[in-house]
Design goal:
Blueprint (H helix, E strand, L loop, with lengths): L1 E7 L7 E4 L7 E4 L2 H21 L10 H7 L7 E6 L18 H13 L4 H10 L1
Antiparallel strand pairs: 1-2, 1-4, 2-3
Helix pairs in contact: 3-4
Length: 129
Amino acid sequence: MRYPIAIEPGDATHAYGVVVPDLPGCFSAGDTLDEAMVNAESAVLAWMETTLDQGGTIPSASSLGTLREAHPEFRDWVWALVTIDPVLLDDTLEQIDITLPRRVLRHVDARAKAAGESRSGYFARLAIS
C-alpha cells in the first residue's frame, strides 16, 4: 500500500513536518527529509494498527494529483509516497510450534492465568506491548 504524504520543508532550526491527508490525524516530523519519511512510515503503520484495533477501516489511498488539487494549503510542500507492507496488518491466525523448558512454561502459564489470558493471548500481548 502506498500513501501520499505532504512534507513541510524544514531548515536548520525547524523540523520537516509530515501530514498524511488520507488518514485523518496522522502526522509526523523529522530533523532531516530522510528522517521525516522514515518517521512518516512509522506513523502511518501506527495509525492503521490503532484504527484496526478500534474496529475501524483503513481508507484507500488517493492519487497524488487528487490530493494536490484538494489541498492548496500544501502548495509549497513536497509530496512523496510511503509504502506500508500489508502483511504487517494481517490478523490471520497462524498456529506455531515452539519449544520451551517445562519450568519456563509453568511460569508462562501461571502468569497467563493470573492475567486472565490464554497462553497464546499472553504471548501475543507481550509481543505487541
